[in-house]
Design goal:
nine-stranded mixed β-sheet, 479 residues, 2 domains, Ferritin, Rossmann fold, 17 helices
Length: 479
């Protein structure tokens, strides 16, 4: 049975291999192997349910025929098979997605996936460990793997260049719950990363099922787009684990690379939940796909314009934005005006620093809007730090918890101003130059006085956290 030590054991084996360099490559290597194991386990399930089921893979490429036997091919023979037959044939699959959707899925997954390991003997050890520990036809293993899957994403976040892949699950769960997708609605994450928002949406929809027929109402209505190959592969795997048999609606692409005018009514969706990458810039030429008044290379701003285009009338959206997107002027102001004129931006939840630690300490906001009606006023809610945090920020070891959002959930349907919540009219916002980076006017002025012992305790905790982070950096540099 899968245990929390499984991933670590596999990665420790990979660390002995000279071809695998760093956490990101180890995770990529692990994920394509796990994907093929999951696919084989799911095929066994399909074969039991349908005697006419035919695998889209040639027999020699199926996991059961080259990887399952612990005494099977190893060393140079295994390495030659993986590099010169398995990957070569999977990458060269040329199929019509409508005629052979499963085969097309596999081809798209392996299009930009690579085998980094150079030792066939170590590769066999990894494969055997996966066979011993993982059985995705067991509900218990599937449930445990979901937890391990999130730990993989956190490792990926710490690998140094992939922080945008992982949005804390308590945040995605709260956002999905508040936007409340319904069975039959089209749901999209246009920058889906590893699929965290979409898996939360699936779990939310499953709670609405009353019959087997209801499952078909969401199977084909979950859409995601991710431009990077590794998070795309993780997203595909995530969707299969959460019950989407053929997740070909999770595409590897960049929606910003097409002219905005090309997205018409047929492309529009009912619900968008997303954390568009912020702090990055798009390549030269991408801004030309947008009207001149909204041209910028900043990714988050372009996604804002795209989101308005992709929503149906009365479509709902929940997204994450940094403070800079709320306060900026120039193009940012024109984008905010467009959103406020075309959508009812009804709620902004202001999060404290550290929610995305250790990737960034930038303060972020949860934005909720509905398209088709201009904004008349905006409710702001300042999410408080838990009392036990004593005014400190969140950290990697002490992250935000889902239970903390109970405060917002109780307030959501019966909104009143209080020490955390306040309401601002669109006139006030316009008079203030459309600056949405507004501070809480109702915040309690009195500050708690800490004892000397408490101050020393906080400083000690800060030093421990700093020492741990420095050790991680040193370990990375020495690799």
């Amino acid at each position: 049975m899968v245990s929390p030590a499984t991933i670590k054991t596999v990665q420790d084996i990979m660390r002995k291999d000279t071809g695998v360099d760093g956490d990101a490559q180890r995770i990529s290597q692990l994920v394509w192997l796990v994907f093929l194991k999951i696919f084989d386990d799911k095929e066994r399930e399909y074969e039991l349910m349908d005697q006419k089921y035919k695998s889209p893979l040639p027999e020699e490429l199926r996991w059961r025929n080259w990887a399952l036997d612990e005494e099977g091919i190893t060393g140079e023979e295994l390495l030659d098979f993986v590099n010169n037959k398995l990957f070569k044939m999977l990458k060269e699959l040329n199929v019509n997605p409508k005629e052979s959707p499963r085969e097309y899925l596999i081809q798209s997954v392996f299009e930009d996936t690579y085998n980094y390991m150079k030792s066939g003997t170590l590769l066999r050890q990894v494969i055997n460990k996966i066979n011993q520990e993982f059985d995705f036809n067991k509900a218990e293993d599937r449930h445990i793997f979901n937890d391990l899957y999130e730990s993989i994403l956190k490792d990926l976040q710490s690998a140094g260049n992939a922080g945008e892949y992982y949005t804390p699950r308590p945040v995605t769960q709260f956002m999905v719950e508040m936007v409340n997708p319904k069975l039959g609605e089209k749901i999209l994450d246009p920058a889906c990363g590893t699929g965290g928002f979409l898996t939360c949406a699936i779990e939310h929809l499953k709670k609405q099922e009353k019959s087997i027929k209801d499952r078909t109402k969401w199977q084909d209505n979950i859409f995601g787009v991710e431009k990077k190959p590794l998070p795309h592969l993780l997203a595909i795997t995530n969707m299969i684990l959460h019950g989407i048999e053929i997740p070909n609606n999770i595409r590897r692409d960049n929606l910003l690379s097409s002219p905005l005018r090309n997205y018409t009514q047929k492309d529009r969706v009912d619900v968008i939940v997303t954390n568009p990458p912020f702090g990055g810039e798009e390549e030269v030429g991408i801004p030309n796909n947008f009207p001149s008044s909204f041209r910028t290379r900043e990714t988050a701003d372009l996604f804002l314009v795209l989101i308005v285009q992709l929503l149906k009338n009365q479509g709902r959206c929940a997204l994450i934005l940094p403070d800079g997107s709320l306060s900026g002027d120039g193009v940012k102001t024109r984008i905010k005006e467009k959103i406020l004129n075309e959508c009812n931006l009804h709620t902004i939840i202001r999060l404290p620093r550290g929610v995305f630690s250790p990737y960034t300490d930038i303060e972020t906001n949860l934005i909720f809007l509905t398209k088709g009606e201009a904004t008349k006023s905006i409710w702001f809610f300042e999410h408080p730090l838990p009392e036990e945090r004593k005014g400190k920020v969140y950290t990697k070891t002490k992250p935000i918890r889902y239970s903390e959002f109970e405060l917002e959930k109780r307030w959501w349907k019966n909104r009143k101003e209080n020490e955390f919540a306040w309401k601002v009219s669109i006139k006030e916002i316009a008079d203030n130059g459309f600056n949405l980076d507004l501070r809480n006017p109702n915040a309690l002025q009195s500050k708690k006085q800490y004892s000397t012992h408490e101050i020393i305790e906080e400083v000690t905790e800060d030093l421990k956290e700093s020492t741990r982070l420095l050790a991680e950096i040193e370990k990375t540099l020495l690799k």
